[in-house]
Amino acid sequence: MSGILRDVVFVDGVRTPFGKAGDKGVYARTRADDLVVKCIRELLRRHPQLPADRVDEVAVAATTQIGDQGLTIGRTAALLSGLPSSVPGFSVDRMCAGAMTAVTTTSSAIASGAYDVAIAGGVEHMGRHPMGEGVDPNPRIVAEKLVDTSALVMGQTAENLHDRFPQITKARCDAFAAASQAKYAAAVAAGRIPRDLVPVAARDGEGAWTLVTADEPPRPGTTVADLASLRTPFRPHGRVTAGNAAGLNDGATACLLAEAKTAAALGLPVGMRLVGYAFAGVEPHVMGVGPVPSTQKALARAGLTIDDIGLFEINEAFAVQVLAFLDHFAIAEDDPRVNPDGGAIATGHPLASSGVRLMTQLSRHFAAHPEVRYGMTTMCIGLGMGGTVIWENPHHADDGTARDEEHAA
Fold it and tell me: Which of 74, 116, 220, 227 is the most buried (most CB within 10 A)?
């Protein structure tokens, strides 16, 4: 390996339609590992020019790594997908940012020369494995007051964020949530969502077979008035509801990453180029503010400012968390650069899988907006963290990948 870092490109990403967790959800009788296998197989189907034995690694994230989400799921998913036994794999856990971490970890290995091609993704079947299943927190965490007890309940951390930023009212959150539903519905109608989805044959809770081709969680036509009447389960007279937060969901994602010259040699398309990334920790009881310091760190390391970012994909775990980010950076909540096709409040948030959904959507936006050079994917993470990845648009005239290709020619 040389001391020079290599360019890493995001080739393509796919996902299953997301389902509602629970006995009545579309994936009630579908295994978690089968969901991510569908995504890996679809990537290979879409890119037949990639020899299967050129894949150097498969990294799959899951927050609850037991049952059909355990057993080093990256390796088992690789085998189940039909990849050669020579292709290794591993599992990742950084809660909601699992797939994001799978991407940054394998991308770092590609940049250093350890890999040329990798598959990264995530899966979460919250119906089979609810968040927190089987965990045994060390009693010192509470006894020694290392964190506030509310830190272990994500909805309570969102209420805490409202307390910290009283200007973020329930009315603002409901308006943001309704807008997310409307943007998502418009994107579906325009054909921008279906292109990313892998159809899944599944048996629902009643045992009937169905072909799942669309997300189950969205509530098209949702209005602010509808949201205003919802109860606040995490605090009496609170502000966080099922309508202004992402739901409990099942689903999987996967993406194909490659070293830039390898991608060109294999004839693989380039959706975007990795610029840099950062993770940061915050007080666990206000975990939703995590994307602020992770973004500050990522921008500083990349030599960029927030004004350089032309597109944002922000995970909508809770509306208050997104609004805290936007307020900090003085970005309007209806800024068209932010989640142009809606977000997790509409699509759902199967925890460890969501990071790649953000990246896949950003790569599609880049193709439609060659005038934008830089974009960002960012998300809050349970137990008090944030993660941010900055990407460059290969369709922009000043993109570094385009310059490298010109020099190579």
Answer: 74
Neighbours of 334 (CB within 10 A): 10
* Average pLDDT, rounded, for the chain: 95
Q: Tell me the domains of the chain and their CATH numbers.
A: 8-129+189-218+245-392 (3.40.47.10)
CA–CA distance, 348 with 287 (Å, rounded to integer): 19
Q: Give the pLDDT of residue 402.
A: 45
Q: How far apart are CA 8 and CA 258, in angstroms?
A: 6
Please give the average per-residue pLDDT across 374-387, as a whole number. Answer: 98
Catalytic residue (choose from 125, 162, 285, 349): 349
Euclidean distance between the first and final Cα of the chain, in Å? 24
- Catalytic position from the list 39, 129, 380, 396: 380
Long-range contacts, stretch 65-71, CB < 8 angstroms, 24+ apart: 65/91, 65/93, 66/129, 66/133, 66/134, 67/32, 67/128, 67/129, 68/31, 68/32, 68/33, 68/34, 68/125, 68/128, 69/32, 69/33, 69/123, 69/124, 69/125, 69/128, 69/129
In degrees and rounded to multiples of 5, residue 307 shows phi and psi of -70, -15
Among residues 137, 204, 167, 169, the alpha carbon closest in space to that of 383 is found at 137
CA neighbours closer than 13 Å in the CB half-sphere of residue 166 = 0
**Active-site residue, selected from the candidate residues 39, 96, 173, 255:** 96
For 110-142, the DSSP string reads HHHTS-SEEEEEEEEETTTS-TTTT----THHH
Structure confidence at residue 404 as a pLDDT band (50, 70, 90): very low
173 an active-site residue? Answer: no
Could you give the CA distance from residue 316 to residue 373 in angstroms, rounded to a whole number? Answer: 23
131 or 304, which is more confident: 304
Strand, helix or coil for residue 363? helix
At residue 300, the pLDDT reads 98
The position carrying tokens 């997300």 is 215
Which residue has better confidence, 218 or 142?
218
- Token digits for 373? 């050079």
In degrees rounded to 5, what are phi and psi of residue 201? -80, 120
- Answer yes or no: are the C-beta atoms of 251 and 353 closer than 8 Å: yes
- 349 among known catalytic residues: yes
